[in-house]
């Protein structure tokens, strides 16, 4: 399935400082600049060479992420391929996000926290009830956000795979046990991804309200797509 988009003309944005809050990590023509409300999903196509900057507006707010080939959604992000190629359990600057066909989908070209997670998976109604009790069953999770957004592109539950968790802290202990603990991000921290193919990106602004890692407070994300170019 091929995804088509139209890109409006936007001015070139050049931050005065790399610490400019909410600025794209890679300057250039702004193609998209959107706020994702707390607990909401988001999706968009990033063309080859363009850069998606994800901003953790409030701090320690997980941006659960799936990536598909915008020209063929049967090709999608693969955790095992990504980790096998880089010989590292964490995602950081320079990590190439690989597909289930072993191809480069997106490359992390900027990262402002110590490490990014791709092991912890996505929360959902079922996992929430196991972790936090049946009183949480009415709360939707990232899985439900992904399902709702995927339907826009003709996909369903069979198309959902293990995901990335930008800004979430998931340490791996010596015995292999994973933890979801207090975050290592902060307000305004960013990660930047360059598209290596037409990348359809799905984001769930994690609606998890039962874990102290985000101080029980869901906050917005900001999605900025830029086309790198010289200063005008």
Structure write-up:
The protein is mainly beta and 232 residues long. It has one domain (24-228). It has 3 helices and 12 strands, in the order ββββββαββααββββ. The strands form 2 sheets. The protein has a 7-stranded antiparallel sheet with strand order 1-2-12-4-10-8-7. The radius of gyration is 17 Å and the shape is globular. It holds the Pfam family DUF1989. This is DUF1989 domain-containing protein. InterPro entries: DUF1989 (IPR018959), UAAP2 (IPR017791). Residues 35-196 form the DUF1989 domain.
What key phrases describe this protein's structure?
232 residues; mainly beta; seven-stranded antiparallel sheet; five-stranded antiparallel sheet; 3 helices; 12 strands; 11% helix; DUF1989; UAAP2; DUF1989 domain-containing protein
Compute the number of strand runs: 12
Distance between the termini: 37 Å
Please state roughly what percent of the residues sit in beta strands, choosing from under 5%, 5-15%, 15-25%, 25-35%, 35-45% or over 45%: 25-35%
Quickly count the domains. Answer: 1
Query: What is the string of SSEs from the N terminus onward?
Result: EEEEEEHEEHHEEEE
Query: What's the overall average pLDDT, rounded?
Result: 83
Query: What is the topology, as strand order, of the major beta sheet?
Result: 1-2-12-4-10-8-7
Continuous helix count: 3
Structural class by secondary-structure content: mainly beta
Q: Could you say which overall geometry the principal axes of the C-alpha atoms support? A: globular
Radius of gyration: 17 Å
